[in-house]
Amino acid sequence: NRNAKSKKKTPMEDDPYKDKLEKEAMQHAKRLDGLLNRSIIHQMIRCNKLRYWLDLNVTQYTDTLGNGLKRRITLDPPPKKRKNRSSTPDDDDNLEYAVANPQDIWSNVDTSHCTLRLLRPHEHNDSIHTMLSLLESEFRCMVG
Questions:
Q1: DSSP assignment of 46-87, as one string?
Q2: CB atoms within 10 A of CB 130
């Protein structure tokens, strides 16, 4: 019947290698299992005394202008200025950054749907450091 419209298949549905590709994708994803998860991040924060602005950011994506575009807002506490006569006012060494509290971070992530950005995680996790080192060796350039 010419009037009955047949549902067109997507190119991936017609692909005879679809199952093989999906299986390989899952195998590749499993190689990264355990590299970084919530408990590892919690341990990194607790053991290394990660600091807001330097080591991590708590962020939220929100439509602040009401135009439908979400922008990232950083919710970190601002650094405090140290009273040090030898440094200039613009000197970063003149700032004291707050140490992140794991309970506060997870409260923001779980209840306020915030995102946790790790800055330089390789400095606090040997597995990530090793993986990046291998990638740099393989690609012969900086990664991160």
A1: HHHT-BBTTTEEEEEEE-SSSSS--EEEE-PPPPEEP--TTS
A2: 12
**Distance (Å, rounded) from C-alpha 41 to C-alpha 36?**
7
Q: What is the largest CA-CA distance in the chain?
A: 88
Tokens for 77? Answer: 């506490």
Query: By the 8 A CB rule, do 51 and 58 touch?
Result: no
The pTM score is 0.69
For 62-85, write each residue's pLDDT tens digit: 998 889 999 999 999 999 998 765
